[in-house]
Amino acid sequence: MRSLLIGIDSGTQSTKALVVDARSGRVLGAAAQAYDLIPNLPPGAKEQHPHTWRDATIKAVRAALRAAGARPSEVVAIGVSGQQHGFVPLDKNGEVIRPAKLWCDTSTAAECEEIMAALGGFKATLRLQGIAVLPGFTASKILWLKKHEPENYARLATVLLPHDYLNFWLTGERVMEYGDASGTALMDIRKRRWCEATIRAIDPELMDKLPPLIPSDQPAGRLRPEAARQLGLEPGVLVSAGGGDNMMGAIGTGNTRPGIVTASFGTSGTIYACSEKPVVDPAGEIAAFCDSTNRWLPLLCTMNVTVATEMMRQDFGYTHAQFEKKAAQVPPGAHGLLLLPYLEGERTPNVPDGTGVMIGINPRTFSASHYCRAAMEGVTLGMNYGLQRLVRLGVRADQIRATGGGSKSRLWRQIMADVFNAEVVTLKVSEGAAYGAALQALWCWRLQKGEKVAIHEITDAFVKINPAETTRPRPEAVAVYRELQALQDELSRRLRPLFPQHRQFVLRHG
Ligand SMILES: Nc1ncnc2c1ncn2[C@@H]1O[C@H](COP(=O)(O)OP(=O)(O)O)[C@@H](O)[C@H]1O
Ligand SMILES: O=C(CO)[C@@H](O)[C@H](O)COP(=O)(O)O
């Protein structure tokens, strides 16, 4: 009989499920279920209801099992990956109190300042716990609830993250594993312990509402009968600790030993590398996360990647293929049309009031082709800002493993190679986070059986590069992008003081 694993990735735009053969690592079935953010919220607020993720998980898993022709008894372990940082507030009965504020919610910038001021400022916060309290991370969302919705806060019994919520629904257990928990900004990332001072700065009683921390190779629990029935599985299946989508993306792209860099082009853009030691950026731009294999994962996140390309694509009414064809009609640099892509505000650099800005509009560049290319280039340059920072902190980047929706575009892969000035490769399984979740589940299952196996033995055996898509930098384009990068960095620096004033205008007249 086959032994099958299920990898689930609950992303911002969709939930993907993979059914993977435990012996060969082959993907036997895959499915996805899309959803949206809750519409018409105040500026900066970005929310989804956790039930949306649960319902999408049921549909995606059932469809993937059908595609794999799987029998329920064949499934031995499940792993869950989820968008990081979202705040799922549960009451004492395990009911969700209100929708989750997501990683891309920038409405809690004031609460970030308040928490860090209580800790002695930005530098003191970094010294204390290795990670700053930035808009996006979970800590400020909890303080926001306390200040803005005291009735809801009074009901708060447990703080969970998106993937922890799915683990809770699957197993009934309220736990957090190190990797995703490091994105709360409530944890001392060096010691992998809750940071009491930060927690007290929000609420002296908050500690009781934080679940226990577990190592990433441990199980979250076993599948409950009710969840098993909803998924069409048998109760008792092992559910691994899971992790944040970037931590799982690291596993799914074989980024389980130092020297490999992964770049994910999804709703957000992330660049990260596995590290044996914590990597704390004195400027706080690179997040000093833990990974989901009991090590660390220095990571840069920009909030605007396919947000920007999708806006152009949908507004012009193009398919992905048409969008790519249009963008390919103009050369690197789009004749000087340059996008500063802070459409949803931005986290790196920290510009929560930011908006998108186009410079270089003239009769020649005011065309769909130029706008499409400028969108792809602008967000990739935004990510390169972070890659340069990672390199300055000592991370080597000879080869970039690209994953996420944007990595499916051939033109975009060339832009990545030229902007990053590094070889860009893709993996045979393009759904890095869902595949990583399945491989972490395999690791946990084998450890539970008493085997001594390291995660990199599993990733070395199963994670394979797709040689047909390897893309190398072209020196002429590299030179163009180097200049464009300098322009984008300068534009960003100069416009930062203007964004809050612009936001006030929009609040009054927008
Ligand atoms: N060929 C393509 N070219 C550009 N973007 C693409 C392509 N295919 C998918 N995408 C975009 O990738 C995004 C989804 O990426 P994904 O990594 O699944 O995001 P998330 O995990 O944030 O939900 C969508 O915005 C989608 O439109
Ligand atoms: O906030 C971060 C990383 O710190 C984001 O990367 C989220 O984890 C969302 O990921 P996607 O849904 O875009 O994959």
TrEMBL record:
Site note Important for activity, residues: D9
Give an example GO molecular function: ATP binding
Q: Which reaction does it catalyse?
A: D-xylulose + ATP = D-xylulose 5-phosphate + ADP + H(+)
Where does the chain cross the membrane?
Answer: none
Superkingdom of origin organism: Bacteria
- The active-site annotation reads D245 (proton acceptor)
Question: Which UniProt key words apply to this protein?
Answer: ATP-binding, Carbohydrate metabolism, Kinase, Nucleotide-binding, Transferase, Xylose metabolism
Occurrences of domain Carbohydrate kinase FGGY C-terminal (ranges): 264-443
The processes (GO biological process) annotated in the record are: D-xylose metabolic process; xylulose catabolic process
Q: What class of enzyme is it?
A: transferase
Q: Where is the Carbohydrate kinase FGGY N-terminal domain?
A: 5-252
Role played: Catalyzes the phosphorylation of D-xylulose to D-xylulose 5-phosphate.
So what family is this one in?
Belongs to the FGGY kinase family.
Q: Output this protein's name.
A: Xylulose kinase
Annotated source species? Limisphaera ngatamarikiensis
Which lineage? Bacteria, Pseudomonadati, Verrucomicrobiota, Verrucomicrobiia, Limisphaerales
Gene field? xylB
